[in-house]
Amino acid sequence: MSVVSAFDALMHRMIELIDGKLSAVQREKLAAAMPQIQWDFPDVNATLCLAASQTQLQVAEPLDEPLFLVRMNHITLEDAAFGRRSLGASFLAGRIHVRGLNPLRLREFIMLVDPLLESYREASLECANSPSATVS
Amino acid sequence: MSAPTAHPRLFREKDADASLLHGKTIAVLGYGLLGRPLALNVRDTIGQGEPASTIIVGSDDDASSVQARDDGFPTDSLVAAAQQSDVALMLLPDEVQADRCPAIWAALRPGTAVVFASGYALAYGLVTPPKEVDIVLFAPRMGGDAIRKRFVDGRGYMAYLGVEQDFTGKARELVLAVAAVAGCLKFGALEMTAKQEVVLDLFVEQAFGPWLGAAMLSTFHVGVEAGLPALGLLMELYLSGEMSETFAQMADEGFLPSTLSHGFAASFGGMTRALSIDREQMSEQMRSILGEIDSGAFAEALQDEFRNGYPCRPFLNTVVGGDDDLISCTERDYRQMD
User: Fold this and answer.
1) How far apart are CA B195 and CA B204, in angstroms?
2) Interval A125-135: pLDDT, tens
3) pLDDT tens digits, one per residue of B228-239
4) How far is the C-alpha of B172 from the C-alpha of A109, rounded, in Å?
5) CB-nearest partner of A88 from B298, B301, B318
6) pLDDT tens digit string along B62-110?
7) Once rounded to an integer, what is the mean pLDDT over residues A102-115?
8) What is the DSSP string of A41-100?
9) Which residues are registered as beta bridge partners of B191?
10) Per residue in B59-88, is it b (16+ CB within 10 Å) or e — as a string?
11) Which of B297, B312, B318 sits opposite A86 (nearest CB)?
12) Which of B158, B162, B172, B92 is nearest to B127 (CA)?
């Protein structure tokens, strides 16, 4: 499996797992506030676009001008998911940039944080070839 | 060149008659960050003498009531304190007021003056006061500790004040008296409406504050990455007090003159770097923030946060309350140095 496809597989699985952790009400709120959230992972040169509808979360085609964009290195996500460095510390250090976030959408964004970290952790452990070793 | 709009009126001590409050019962509704210093200031000014005023603290929060009693104030519930008052200082948190005010309104006697320390609930229509009371604004522009310290030092502090509803016909005199006994007018107070006050406050808090904070964080981390000493960076940014002195100098001498007084190298480097910052992008973001504040969209989000039990608070506390970041570690090391 190539480096990029290993990363894609991990992210797809992570999205599936997040979807399973959100209630119907949470999914509905997310779809209303942030129907698409895009992640840029510069260290692995990858982009992930998450589309939220009332029924499910799924991977979508990346947008040229996403309204809601999170830019962070893959290693920052992995460090947070495995408790090596908190998201707060990474944010303060300028390792996480969130475009489009404002107080009107904060609740929906926060709602996604714990499921995201848990799902990343679970997906990583599931993958035979851990991306922490191969995607860097 | 003159300013594009007329300046609000600036009130000083000579404009106020503090004796209007002598012998009155003043209820301080809420004994938190702002309530405590204001209560102490008012008591120190008119709590003694002849005729002394009575200052009573109204709070439904056990810890605040204990603190108020420890400070020597009589305490009662919010509603009971409001019932006894000639003047009620509304010092509950912004987002809580809509919930608590209806019971307070029902307890007030006609002619009571209610003094809001923030225009938020009034400006966004979250409270509907009864017609038979005065509704005024006295909004200090500093944190509680600074308000108390400046009062004790005899310096005064900045506030905004205004009249939103004048039932007695003496609302302006009343709010000026409150500003005087709270120790503000030694510095001065600008006249504002509740809407102006809250939009100004939230706008600077949400537009300027984040840029300042982000600039400090980036300066620190870029410097550390390049091998500059972390402690030295924090000293330059705020630990030494140099930055505080710079802001004080701006207040004393003016924004531009204070810049020039840092020497040629500072203006040669600083001003040329400032020219390369994308101010249009910055301004665009600020206009968007201002729009959300002015329209009430931000207030709606804050009220929603309150109604749902502050779901964002743990996350925000995690971000700003952590201690594993390099700045916190450096500060800790510094405070342990001999």
Assistant:
1) 14
2) 988 555 454 44
3) 999 999 999 999
4) 45
5) B318
6) 899 999 999 999 999 999 999 999 999 999 999 999 999 999 999 999 9
7) 88
8) EGGGTEEEEEEE-SS-EEEEPPPSS-SSEEEE-HHHHHHHHTTSS-HHHHHHTT-EEEES
9) B161
10) bbeeebbebbeeeebebbebbebbbbbbbb
11) B318
12) B92
- CA B313, distance to chain mean position in Å, is 20
Q: What is the dihedral of CA B200, B204, B206, B208, to 10 degrees?
A: 160
Measured between alpha carbons, how far is B92 from B125 in angstroms, rounded to an integer? Answer: 16
Please give the backbone phi and psi of residue B156, each rounded to the nearest 5 degrees, phi first: 80, 175
| pLDDT of B4 over the 70 cut | no
Phi-psi region of A83 (alpha: psi -120 to 50; beta: other; left: phi over 0): left
- For residues A35 and B33, what is the distance between their CA atoms, to the nearest angstrom? 39
Contact B218 A89 (CB under 8 A): no
Nearest to B187 by CA among B317, B6, B11, B319: B11
The CA distances from residue A3 to A6, A129, A130, in Å, are 5, 10, 10
Whole-angstrom CA distances from B34 to B52, B89, B93 are 23, 11, 10
Q: What is the pLDDT of residues B264-302, one digit of tens each?
A: 888 888 888 988 999 999 999 999 999 999 999 999 999
User: Cβ separation of A86 and B324 shorter than 8 Å?
Assistant: yes
Q: What does the alpha-carbon distance between residue B328 and residue B337 come to, in Å, rounded to a whole number?
A: 15
Distance (Å, whole) CA B328 – CA B321: 10
Question: For residues B191 and B176, is the Cβ–Cβ distance under 8 A?
Answer: no
Cβ–Cβ of A86/B292 closer than 8 Å? no
Amino acid at A110: I
Q: What pLDDT score was predicted for residue A136?
A: 39
pTM: 0.85
- The minimum CA-CA distance between B158 and chain A, rounded to whole Å, is 28
pLDDT of residue B300: 93
Quote the ipTM score: 0.75
Closest CA relative to residue B297, chosen from B168, B124, B172, B130: B124
Distance (Å) of CA A106 to CA A102, B4, B133, B224, B307: 6, 36, 38, 30, 15
Interface test with A, best of B281, B312, B320 (most A CBs within 10 A): B312
Gap between the Cα atoms of B157 and B147, Å rounded: 7
- DSSP state, residue B112: -
Inter-chain touch B217–A92, beta carbons under 8 Å? yes
Angle subtended by helix axes B326-335 and B209-225, to nearest 10: 80
Question: What band does B186 get if pLDDT is binned at 50, 70 and 90?
Answer: very high
Check if B265 contacts A (Cβ < 8 Å): no
Q: Which residues pair with B114 in a beta bridge?
A: B88, B135
